[in-house]
Amino acid sequence: MSEPVILFENVSKYYPLYHPMTGGVKNFLFNLPRAVHLIKNSKFEAVRNISFEVYRGETYGIIGRNGSGKSTTLGLMAGVLKPSKGKVVINGRISPLLELGGGFHPELTGRENILLNGVLLGLTRAEVFAKMDEIIDFSEIRDFIDQPIRVYSSGMLARLGFSVVASLDPEILLIDEILAVGDINFQKKCLERMMAFKKRGVTIVFVSHSMEDIIRICDRVAWIEDRRIKKEGQPLEVVEAYLQTG
Ligand SMILES: Nc1ncnc2c1ncn2[C@@H]1O[C@H](COP(=O)(O)OP(=O)(O)OP(=O)(O)O)[C@@H](O)[C@H]1O
Ligand SMILES: [Mg+2]
Description:
Elements: E1 4-16, H1 24-30, H2 32-41, E2 43-55, E3 59-63, H3 70-78, E4 85-90, E5 94-97, H4 110-120, H5 125-139, H6 154-166, E6 172-176, H7 184-199, E7 203-207, H8 211-217, E8 220-225, E9 228-233, H9 235-244
Parallel strand pairs: 3-7, 3-8, 5-6, 6-7
Antiparallel strand pairs: 1-2, 1-4, 8-9
Helix pairs in contact: 4-5, 4-6, 5-6
């Protein structure tokens, strides 16, 4: 196998946990130092001590139940989250397409959000303008492109997000769950574009609840359960094991 482009070494991620004020507000204020200490030190572990590698050119799937830590893992790859423990190493330019609408500004129009996202993803303004028509064509939402995106449906937002990323020249593509809200035509188009990236040697990490898509495009799959990687390997084997647990 070639070199790893993504390396997780004993990575844990904690989120702060919000404590309910069981004793009421008065009690909370009366015992303020203790309450503050409690809040500061309460944490929820979303990912526990996970280690894995993704190799150059590989399409790596991540599956698992709601809340099992998939988006957290992708956020750590994208650098929007920092590991609480352990080490994350990325060798290459990351193009993340994270959860719906992340990175979009609701009051800006579709066109303005394309510009914003293109620049955030490392293009110059001129480069985004040069690609603007291609991006809008791919999204197929030209009629709405000059409307603020707060009026977009979730599928339209997904179209906008995927279209920006699809027009880039990514080295490492992170895709979280974006296909689920797209209609059949758009899903097909996204999968075709991902296949084309794959052929060109782009490394892809793909989070999905569609086992069919996972089996179709992934070379290797990790199943995350209870904060850890429960099984990693051939897509069919991992998906079967996952489905058997009901
Ligand atoms: N910002 C946050 N603050 C606190 N807890 C969080 C935060 N984000 C996620 N969590 C918790 O971390 C755990 C893992 O969440 P994550 O979003 O990674 O799950 P997921 O596998 O992507 O789930 P889904 O399939 O629903 O997208 C969940 O229990 C969630 O409640
Ligand atoms: Mg998620």
